[in-house]
Every structure is written in C-alpha cells, then in structure tokens.
Amino acid sequence: MSFVSSFVCTKCGKQFQDDVRERVCPKCGSFLEIRYDLDAIRKVVTRKSLRVRKPGIWKYSELLPVSTPSKAVSLGEGGTFLHKCDRLAKHLGLKSLYLKDETTNPTGSFIDRGTAVEVTVAKERGFESLCCGSTGNLAASLVAYAARAGIESNVFIAQTGNVDMGKFYQILAYGANVTVVKNHEEALARADAEKHHSYVVKAYSSIFLEGVKTTIFEICEQLMWNAPDWILVPMGNGGHLSLIWKGLRELQEIGILDDIETRIVGVQSAGCAPIVEAFMSGSKNIIPTSSGATIALDIGVGNPSCGHTALRAIRESNGFALSVSDKDTLNAVGSIAKLEGVFVEPASATPVAALRQLLQSNEIDPSDSIVCVVTGMGLKYPEIARILIKGQSKLEHLLSRVEDRKFTTQIGRTKQQILQTLLEGESYGYGIWKNLKEEFGISIKIPSVYQHLSELRSTGLITQTRIESTYDNRKRTYYALTEKGKRTIKQLRKLTSRS
Q1: Burial letters 381-416, b for 16+ CB under 10 A, else e
Q2: How far apart are CA 45 and CA 335, in angstroms?
Q3: Measured between alpha carbons, how far apart are the two ends of the chain, in Å?
C-alpha cells in the first residue's frame, strides 16, 4: 500500500497524481516533490514500531513511494554507520562530531538509497529496461540494481570531461550496455530520448530523491530520535540537502520528532559553486556556471536542478552555504582517513573542510552536536592516494611501480614514441605524424595518429591543451603529457635500460 497523496511542483505549486513519466513540471520545468497522507502514516509509524524493524531504507517504507515494499529491489542499502568521531572532534576542538558513513552502501555511495527506490518503482510499473546519462556514482548504482532486478540497463557516458576510473570499472563489471558520447550534456539528452520505451533514472526525480531522504531518518533514529544541531551536506544538484530538510519536517509532522532546531549547511567546491553564490548574494535564483570543480567531481554541477529547494532549505533552517578550496578538501580527506579510518572521495570530505571554516568564524559552538554526511568511498577515486602521499618518496616510488606497470607492459612502440615526442613539449596531430616518420622511422597514416592520441587520452596519459585556427581556417588541436604520462615515460626508460 502506498501513502502517496500527490506530486507537487517545487516552484509553481501545480499538483499531479502520478509522475512515472513526468520528471519535471510541464508548466515551469522544476522538479516535483512527493506529498504523503501524513495523518494516516502517523497512525502506523511510531518510534516503537520502527524499533523492531530491520535496518535499512525499507523500514521507513510508509514514507517511500512504493506499493509493495516486500518486493523491493534491494542490495542491502541504508542502515549505514553513524560514526562518532572522537579523534577528529578533538583535533577540531569539538565535543560531539559524527560522520554519517554512506561509503558502506552496496556500490559505495548514498546514491544507492535513491536507486533502490527508483528501480523498485520501475519494476512495479512493468518496465523492462533502465537508462541514465552520468559520469559516476549514479551510473554505477543503476547498473548494479538493474542487474539485481534482472532488467536491462543502458548507460550514456561522456568521452570528454571527468569520469572517475573507479566508477567506470564498476559500470563495466556489472555488464551494462555502455555508449560513449561527446560530452555530459549529450549523455543526458541521449538518455532522455529513451523515455518512450525505457525508464530514465535521474538524480533529481521525485521518486529517486525520496530514497535519498532516508539518510536523515537514520541519523535521527541513531541519535535516539534527536535531531542534531548541525548537518553538513555536499551539494551537487542540491537534492540530497533538500530532502534532508523535507525528511526532518515529515518526522515532526507524524509526531516522531519534537521541535526542529537543526541548521543545515550545504557545501560546494570553490571551482563550481552556483548555489553558494546565490545564497551569498541573497538571490532566490541560481545563475548557471560553466566552470567545473577540479577535485570534487561529483558536486561540480554548473546548473543544479534542485538548487532553488536547497536554497529554501538552508534559509528556512537558518543555515549556511559555503564553498571550499581543493586544498582544504584534500586536507579533509587526509584527516578523515588518518584520524577516523574512513576513506572518502573528495566530494564527501567537503563538509569537514567547511566545518573548519565555520569554527574559525565562530559560527558553530564547539559544544553543538554536528553530523557531516560523507557520501561516497575513496576507492571510487583511486588517484587521490597519490596526492595524499605527495612528498613521501618511498611511497611515491612504490605506487609508481604498481600503477605504471600495467601501462608500460601494454603500450606499443608507436604510442611509446608519441609519448616520447610529447615529452619535449606539446604538439599537434600533423606535427606528431611528421616527427614519428623523421625521428623514429614510423610511417603510418594521419588518421592512425589521431586514433593513438584518442586511446592515450582515454588512459589518462595525455590531455588536450588547446585548439588553434590556422591561416587557412583549419582547427589544430594540441596535446601534452599528463603527470601519469610523464611517470610512464620514466618507467619505460627504466625498462629499456634493463633490457
């Protein structure tokens, strides 16, 4: 039995009875919010009734948009640990600090909460295929739950842009149909074009967000049905933060929580912070940005679909929106790992970085109870390990041997000479082709050179630096070695000298 009463547009207030096809309001384009018959739920959901249920998101099924919770598609999502951080708290000068450790979800991310609900609804409605356009956690989670449900999955991934390799490996392992497209915008458009015969999963759909909402239910229950003074949350689209506030209000309305005094802090990367900029300027509108986060990839959303509701939640809770630098984010990753034994990806560490700012500005009282939501595991972003050990020569050397061996044993002669050419400085396709022929005696066609360059880019050994127009109005694309490419060249030289 479902307790859903309606779907309501978060901007214009228009109501709908069912949104299985409508992901946004057809009138104003904003995402929809699910409303429940809270009076009916109050009669069946109490602290006592919840106490005897098994951990996980489905113990709160009356506050989820599913008809038959007993047939839920589940991998054991939710029920994650609320980690009391005594050492990190002492380091920061705090009395009561917790991490809501979402890294222990089935695919290593809080996203699993939303995906489980979305895939369950898709199966209830009889859909036989699922799809999404994504660069990371959403795609990895979707293909895992599709495999569990026995439903076909299709994922569209951008060839250009930032894709964490750990997440890409996950996607491939689950056996999804993967289509590589030009950029993230095209990935989203291609997925949306499938909506007439496939169930499209989006991180801002009302059904998906209801699953994500269960984070706050667990936090309050783990604190003996007390809401913390502060909750700090990473913001990408802004949906997670928005639903945390919605969940708090629902718990109060059904009589499980008393007065809510929780203040919510939304955190973005300084490289991409449109919600923070709107908050600081006092605006109700989010101005999209084309810039992207350089380290916290998953929250580098230039045009956040739930930005207006995130702003509303922050202001209604008398909270803050903050941006943090890459340097502070990396320091937070290290602190969480070394002091509490939890390895998180950069986006997940931004709340701890923001917490430092709030303490320094005396916005937070050291005696307040604080929960930082860490949303994804560090193994999804394995490159972060190299940054964390920078300056420790023995560990850097060992990591180089492990990382680079897999490349140096597989790179053919032509690719090796291309890397060698770029070691001298950036170059373009024709220049590389000419150098291969004149310096190394390698005669191949120019299209083959571009194929090699594309493959080297996909492995992260080279990067595109700039595009110039020639005198005859043609485009000339320049390439250069990445740090990984430079390390690989060094490893190749060592192997050559030993042979």
Answers
A1: beebbbebeeeeeeeeeeebeebbeebbeebeebbb
A2: 39
A3: 70
Here the tokens at position 12 are 């214009």
For the chain, 499 residues long, give each residue's pLDDT as a single digit of tens: 789 999 999 889 888 876 655 678 888 888 899 999 999 999 999 999 999 999 999 999 999 999 999 999 999 999 999 999 999 999 999 999 999 999 999 999 999 999 999 999 999 999 999 999 876 788 889 999 999 999 999 998 876 555 666 677 777 777 778 887 877 788 888 998 988 889 999 888 999 999 999 999 999 999 999 999 999 999 999 999 999 999 999 999 999 998 899 999 999 999 899 999 999 999 989 999 877 666 787 888 888 999 999 999 999 999 999 999 989 999 999 999 999 999 998 999 999 999 999 999 999 999 999 999 999 988 766 666 666 656 666 555 555 555 554 444 445 778 888 988 899 899 999 899 998 888 888 888 888 888 888 878 877 789 989 888 877 777 889 999 988 788 777 766 655 554 4
Task: Determine what percent of the chain falls in helix, strand and coil, rounding each to the nearest 5.
Answer: 45, 20, 35
* Both structure tokens of 111: 């996203």
Tell me the two tokens of residue 197. Answer: 């015969």
**Residue 163 and residue 168: Cα distance in Å, rounded?**
7
Q: Is there a contact between 419 and 413 (Cβ–Cβ < 8 Å)?
A: no
Determine whether 93 is exposed, middle or buried from the number of CB atoms within 10 Å of its CB (0-12, 13-18, 19+): exposed
Residue 332 contacts residue 307 (beta carbons within 8 Å): no
Burial 140-156 (b: 16+ CB within 10 A, else e): bbbbbbbbbbebbbbbb
CA 473 to chain CA centroid, nearest Å: 40
Region of residue 211 (left: phi > 0; alpha: psi -120 to 50; beta: else): alpha
Q: CA 172 from chain center: how many Å?
A: 18
- Domains located in the chain, CATH noted: 54-108+208-380 (3.40.50.1100), 111-205 (3.40.50.1100), 398-498 (1.10.10.10)
CA distances from residue 80 to 47, 113, 319, 405 in whole angstroms, order as listed = 19, 11, 25, 36
Q: What length is written for the chain?
A: 499
* Concatenated DSSP letters of 173-238: HTT-EEEEESSHHHHHHHHHTTTTTSEE--TT-HHHHHHHTHHHHHHHHHTTS---SEEEEE-SSS
Return the bridge partners of 35, or none: 6
Tokens of residue 245, six digits: 């506030």
